[in-house]
Specification:
The complex is a heterodimer of chains A (283) and B (102).
Chain A (H helix, E strand, L loop, with lengths): L6 E5 L7 H13 L2 E6 L4 E6 L6 E6 L6 H6 L2 H11 L3 E6 L2 E6 L11 H35 L8 H34 L11 H25 L3 H25 L3 H24 L1
Antiparallel strand pairs in A: 1-3, 2-3, 4-6, 5-6
Chain B lengths: L10 H9 L4 E2 H11 L8 H13 L3 E7 L2 E6 L1 H25 L1
Antiparallel strand pairs in B: 1-3, 2-3
Helix pairs in contact in B: 1-2
Amino acid sequence: MVKKNEFKTFHKEFGYFDRTGIQEYLEQKSSEGWALVNKQFASDWDFKRIVPQKLHYSITYLPQFTNEDQFLLSESKNEYLELCSKSGWQFVCAYKNMVIFVNENENPTPLQTDPEAELSLIHKSFLKLFLPKTLCLSAFLMILFFDEFFSETVSKTRDFTLLCCVLLSIYCIFDLLSYFRWRKKALTAAASGIFSKTWGMDKLLSVLFCIITILGIVAVAVNSYLTKNYKSIILIGTILTIIAIEIIIKKIENRIKSKWKKYLFKFASVLIYIALIAFIISS
Amino acid sequence: MPRIKFQTLTEQMFYVLLSLNDECCGIDIMDKVSEITDNRVKVGSGTLYNLLEEFLESGMIVQTKSEGRRRSYILTNEGKDLLNCEYKRLCKQIEDFRKYLL
């Protein structure tokens, strides 16, 4: 039986590759009496109550995998985990291709002892997971921008759309530039055997992203209101509802320990989705 | 200046390859490197796993057997050549040091 106060989800924003920032955060939480058990979304961290203690955390990236299931089902996983446990590093959880370990020893041998090798892992993961997504988004924005800009029929929310495209493009460019700027510095430091502090999520970029999302939703809402066509607002509302339901389902699922209860819950969540889709089609 | 892959070896790369002159599995490599260097050099588990994958991919080592969760490896001729090159480079560095500072 899981007591309510034993588990808690904390919301904390980090860049995906902000290894040092995440480590510091998890170590601080352990000294406050919380040990990480799972990571569900980009910024949700599930903890369980422990006696406050000094735990060491280490984060590593495995570019040969694109998601946690691929890693957990791989043949090399056991060999890797055995190697890590040799120096006291115990597997905590995996998120995408990020793997998190904990160590209770006082002065453990770090998981990564070669900064060049670590940089290579981060770069391969970046090229595999993030660069394609960012490039696709940029291409989509360019198409949207030019389509709207040169369109013969001027929609009532043209300015909004153009503004969103420009802001999102700036976001993508800054995101890429900040990575390559950090990588250049880190490579030079690594050649001398020095680990660089990883670059964190730029607060300015986070704020920019929130503004763009709100502007986008407002643009769709205003357009729907002016044109008296509510299809797009229903679509956005549905997407937001699905995201909210997905988050709630994941959170509940992670708290359920019993296997059959988990299956039952999954079955119930599938029914919810079916009901939701049926509702959308009928309306 | 960033290092070009395998043109020169980091200390950890050097000792991992050196310890694979005899067939060895991952866990034994960690002990062997500590033993060779009198605990001066320690290879982290994550780094070792990554290096083994890279050495395998580039043909510097080969997998000899797989027993349960343990895989064993051994140095190939390419790996031995790479170690020899590194040895010569280090000798040259020592020679230069002697010439100018001793």
